[in-house]
Amino acid sequence: MTTALEREFKNPLTQAEFQRILAQYPFKPAFQQSNLYFDTPAGDLKQRRIGLRIRCFDTKGEQTLKISHHDQTHALTEITDPLTVAQAQAGQLQANGQVAAYLEKIGLPLNLLQPLGLITTKRRQCILPIGLFVLDETTFPDQTTDYEIELETQSAKHPITSTAWLAQLAIPQRPSLNKIQRLLKHQRSLV
Protein backbone atom coordinates (compact mmCIF):
# COMPACT_ATOMS: atom_id res chain seq x y z
CA MET A 1 0.00 0.00 0.00
CA THR A 2 1.20 3.47 -0.83
CA THR A 3 -0.16 6.92 -0.17
CA ALA A 4 1.31 9.79 -2.16
CA LEU A 5 0.64 13.46 -2.74
CA GLU A 6 1.19 14.59 -6.30
CA ARG A 7 0.40 17.46 -8.61
CA GLU A 8 -0.82 16.65 -12.10
CA PHE A 9 -0.98 18.95 -15.09
CA LYS A 10 -2.93 17.43 -17.99
CA ASN A 11 -3.86 18.68 -21.42
CA PRO A 12 -5.56 17.06 -24.43
CA LEU A 13 -3.56 16.82 -27.65
CA THR A 14 -4.32 16.47 -31.31
CA GLN A 15 -2.85 13.43 -33.02
CA ALA A 16 -0.32 15.69 -34.81
CA GLU A 17 0.78 17.26 -31.50
CA PHE A 18 1.08 13.80 -30.00
CA GLN A 19 3.35 12.65 -32.85
CA ARG A 20 5.49 15.80 -32.62
CA ILE A 21 6.04 15.47 -28.86
CA LEU A 22 6.72 11.75 -29.22
CA ALA A 23 9.52 12.57 -31.68
CA GLN A 24 10.96 15.41 -29.52
CA TYR A 25 11.49 13.63 -26.19
CA PRO A 26 13.31 10.44 -25.15
CA PHE A 27 10.26 8.46 -24.05
CA LYS A 28 10.77 4.93 -22.81
CA PRO A 29 9.02 2.21 -24.86
CA ALA A 30 5.24 2.28 -24.58
CA PHE A 31 3.43 -0.06 -22.22
CA GLN A 32 -0.26 -0.88 -22.07
CA GLN A 33 -2.55 -0.58 -19.09
CA SER A 34 -6.27 -1.06 -18.69
CA ASN A 35 -8.32 0.91 -16.19
CA LEU A 36 -11.68 -0.22 -14.82
CA TYR A 37 -13.45 2.67 -13.07
CA PHE A 38 -16.03 2.47 -10.28
CA ASP A 39 -18.69 4.61 -8.60
CA THR A 40 -22.02 4.17 -6.86
CA PRO A 41 -25.22 4.36 -8.92
CA ALA A 42 -25.80 7.80 -7.34
CA GLY A 43 -22.30 9.05 -8.26
CA ASP A 44 -21.11 9.44 -4.67
CA LEU A 45 -17.41 9.32 -5.58
CA LYS A 46 -17.85 11.88 -8.35
CA GLN A 47 -19.67 14.22 -5.95
CA ARG A 48 -16.72 13.96 -3.55
CA ARG A 49 -14.17 14.46 -6.36
CA ILE A 50 -12.75 10.99 -5.85
CA GLY A 51 -11.77 8.55 -8.59
CA LEU A 52 -11.54 4.80 -8.05
CA ARG A 53 -9.98 2.36 -10.48
CA ILE A 54 -8.46 -1.04 -10.86
CA ARG A 55 -5.47 -0.85 -13.17
CA CYS A 56 -4.00 -3.91 -14.88
CA PHE A 57 -0.49 -4.05 -16.33
CA ASP A 58 1.22 -7.05 -17.94
CA THR A 59 2.87 -8.18 -14.71
CA LYS A 60 0.87 -6.62 -11.86
CA GLY A 61 -2.30 -4.83 -10.88
CA GLU A 62 -3.40 -2.16 -8.43
CA GLN A 63 -6.50 -0.50 -7.05
CA THR A 64 -6.21 3.24 -6.59
CA LEU A 65 -8.24 6.04 -5.07
CA LYS A 66 -7.46 9.53 -6.35
CA ILE A 67 -8.72 12.18 -3.96
CA SER A 68 -8.77 15.73 -5.33
CA HIS A 69 -7.83 18.58 -3.07
CA HIS A 70 -10.42 21.32 -3.18
CA ASP A 71 -7.89 24.16 -3.33
CA GLN A 72 -7.43 24.10 -7.13
CA THR A 73 -3.70 23.32 -6.91
CA HIS A 74 -3.96 20.27 -9.17
CA ALA A 75 -3.00 18.28 -6.08
CA LEU A 76 -4.22 14.75 -5.48
CA THR A 77 -3.77 12.24 -2.74
CA GLU A 78 -3.42 8.76 -4.17
CA ILE A 79 -4.01 5.63 -2.12
CA THR A 80 -2.88 2.49 -3.94
CA ASP A 81 -3.10 -1.17 -2.96
CA PRO A 82 -1.14 -3.75 -4.99
CA LEU A 83 -3.06 -6.53 -6.75
CA THR A 84 -2.01 -9.60 -8.66
CA VAL A 85 -2.71 -9.66 -12.38
CA ALA A 86 -5.44 -12.25 -11.74
CA GLN A 87 -7.12 -10.00 -9.15
CA ALA A 88 -6.95 -6.99 -11.46
CA GLN A 89 -8.27 -8.94 -14.45
CA ALA A 90 -11.18 -10.21 -12.33
CA GLY A 91 -12.21 -6.58 -11.77
CA GLN A 92 -13.19 -7.15 -8.15
CA LEU A 93 -12.29 -4.49 -5.60
CA GLN A 94 -10.28 -5.95 -2.74
CA ALA A 95 -11.55 -5.43 0.80
CA ASN A 96 -8.22 -5.96 2.56
CA GLY A 97 -6.36 -2.72 1.93
CA GLN A 98 -6.15 0.99 2.53
CA VAL A 99 -8.50 1.80 -0.37
CA ALA A 100 -11.37 -0.16 1.21
CA ALA A 101 -10.52 1.24 4.66
CA TYR A 102 -10.71 4.82 3.35
CA LEU A 103 -14.01 4.14 1.58
CA GLU A 104 -15.47 2.63 4.76
CA LYS A 105 -14.27 5.65 6.73
CA ILE A 106 -16.23 8.01 4.43
CA GLY A 107 -19.33 5.80 4.49
CA LEU A 108 -18.99 4.07 1.11
CA PRO A 109 -18.53 0.33 1.59
CA LEU A 110 -17.32 -1.65 -1.42
CA ASN A 111 -20.71 -3.35 -1.91
CA LEU A 112 -22.18 0.02 -3.00
CA LEU A 113 -19.69 0.40 -5.86
CA GLN A 114 -20.19 -0.84 -9.39
CA PRO A 115 -18.02 -0.78 -12.53
CA LEU A 116 -18.50 2.22 -14.83
CA GLY A 117 -16.43 0.97 -17.73
CA LEU A 118 -13.03 0.00 -19.04
CA ILE A 119 -10.46 1.95 -21.05
CA THR A 120 -7.10 0.92 -22.47
CA THR A 121 -4.13 3.27 -22.55
CA LYS A 122 -0.83 2.99 -24.34
CA ARG A 123 1.48 5.02 -22.08
CA ARG A 124 4.92 6.46 -22.68
CA GLN A 125 7.00 8.05 -19.93
CA CYS A 126 10.01 10.32 -19.81
CA ILE A 127 11.70 11.53 -16.64
CA LEU A 128 12.50 15.25 -16.73
CA PRO A 129 14.07 17.46 -14.04
CA ILE A 130 10.61 18.91 -13.31
CA GLY A 131 8.88 15.55 -12.96
CA LEU A 132 7.44 12.59 -14.82
CA PHE A 133 6.33 13.49 -18.37
CA VAL A 134 3.60 11.15 -19.65
CA LEU A 135 2.17 10.76 -23.13
CA ASP A 136 -1.10 8.79 -23.27
CA GLU A 137 -3.00 7.29 -26.19
CA THR A 138 -6.34 6.07 -24.80
CA THR A 139 -8.98 3.91 -26.47
CA PHE A 140 -12.58 4.00 -25.22
CA PRO A 141 -15.48 1.49 -25.51
CA ASP A 142 -16.73 3.15 -28.72
CA GLN A 143 -13.24 2.57 -30.24
CA THR A 144 -12.45 6.31 -30.21
CA THR A 145 -8.84 7.15 -29.42
CA ASP A 146 -7.68 10.37 -27.81
CA TYR A 147 -4.32 11.80 -26.81
CA GLU A 148 -3.15 13.55 -23.66
CA ILE A 149 0.02 14.82 -22.03
CA GLU A 150 0.57 14.87 -18.31
CA LEU A 151 3.24 16.18 -16.01
CA GLU A 152 3.37 14.65 -12.53
CA THR A 153 5.40 16.28 -9.81
CA GLN A 154 5.42 15.56 -6.11
CA SER A 155 6.59 19.03 -5.18
CA ALA A 156 3.99 21.71 -4.54
CA LYS A 157 6.85 24.20 -4.49
CA HIS A 158 7.99 23.61 -8.06
CA PRO A 159 7.82 26.92 -9.92
CA ILE A 160 6.38 25.59 -13.19
CA THR A 161 2.74 26.21 -13.97
CA SER A 162 0.62 24.34 -16.47
CA THR A 163 0.52 27.45 -18.67
CA ALA A 164 4.31 27.81 -18.70
CA TRP A 165 4.81 24.10 -19.33
CA LEU A 166 2.40 24.09 -22.28
CA ALA A 167 4.01 27.24 -23.69
CA GLN A 168 7.39 25.47 -23.62
CA LEU A 169 5.81 22.65 -25.64
CA ALA A 170 4.02 25.05 -28.03
CA ILE A 171 0.70 23.42 -27.11
CA PRO A 172 -2.44 25.51 -26.53
CA GLN A 173 -4.11 25.06 -23.17
CA ARG A 174 -7.45 23.29 -23.63
CA PRO A 175 -10.24 22.32 -21.28
CA SER A 176 -9.44 18.87 -19.96
CA LEU A 177 -11.80 16.15 -18.81
CA ASN A 178 -10.40 13.39 -16.62
CA LYS A 179 -10.42 9.82 -17.92
CA ILE A 180 -13.61 8.89 -16.03
CA GLN A 181 -15.47 11.84 -17.57
CA ARG A 182 -14.17 10.92 -21.02
CA LEU A 183 -15.13 7.28 -20.51
CA LEU A 184 -18.70 8.25 -19.63
CA LYS A 185 -18.89 10.60 -22.62
CA HIS A 186 -17.78 7.83 -24.99
CA GLN A 187 -20.16 5.30 -23.42
CA ARG A 188 -23.08 7.68 -24.03
CA SER A 189 -22.11 7.79 -27.70
CA LEU A 190 -22.73 4.01 -27.87
CA VAL A 191 -26.36 4.38 -26.79
Automatic annotation (TrEMBL):
Cited InterPro entries: CYTH-like_dom_sf (IPR033469), CYTH_domain (IPR023577), Uncharacterised_YjbK (IPR009195)
Xref: SUPFAM superfamilies: CYTH-like phosphatases
Span of the signal peptide: none
CYTH domain residues: 4-191
Organism: Loigolactobacillus bifermentans DSM 20003
Name of the molecule in the record: CYTH domain-containing protein
